[in-house]
Amino acid sequence: MLRAHAGRTDRPAGWLSALNEDGIGAALRAVHADVAHSWSLKELAGISHMSRSVFARAFKSHVGIPPLEYLIQWRMNLARDALTRDTMSISELARATGYQSESAFSTAFRRVVGSSPAQFRNQARQQLSSAVSEG
Question: What is the pLDDT of residue 135?
Fold first, then answer.
């Protein structure tokens, strides 16, 4: 249903629209299927059957950001969700999102989110605790 909607609209719809594109969609599906994989621009371009430069331009045109930036954003969205749900340790989450160490993950998380993973998790816990005590 989402693909049909994206195919009918005249306006680009970011990653949703890109899923309809054969090459870009294949790369997005691969990234979403294996977020922990150490993706490279060359590998994603190969999946898309494009050169690296053509792939990078097409991806940015359709999605709005470069492919490796998208990968980082996707990983951090998954990490925020996992930290909010409190389902994994930070080191488990680092591995699950493709980082070789907790330190590398924490550095990337802080750069994207603005706080450390531990601070983010503690804030989410506090918000949940406040919501429960109010409700």
Answer: 60
pLDDT of residue 132: 76
The low-confidence residues of the chain, meaning pLDDT below 70, are 1-21, 135
Task: Spell out the residues 6+ positions from residue 37 whose beta carbon is closer than 8 angstroms to its own.
Answer: 30, 31, 98
At residue 12, the pLDDT reads 45
**CA torsion 15→17→23→24, rounded to 10°?**
-20
Give every CB contact of residue 3 below 8 A, 6+ residues apart in sequence.
19, 20
Q: Are 45 and 51 in contact (CB under 8 A)?
A: yes
Q: Which amino acid belongs to residue 115?
A: S
CA angle 26/78/14 to nearest 5° reads: 45
Separation of CA 106 from chain center: 15
Nearest to 71 by CA among 35, 25, 122, 19: 35
For 37: left if phi > 0, alpha if psi spans -120 to 50, otherwise beta; the answer is beta
Place of tokens 């621009």: 41
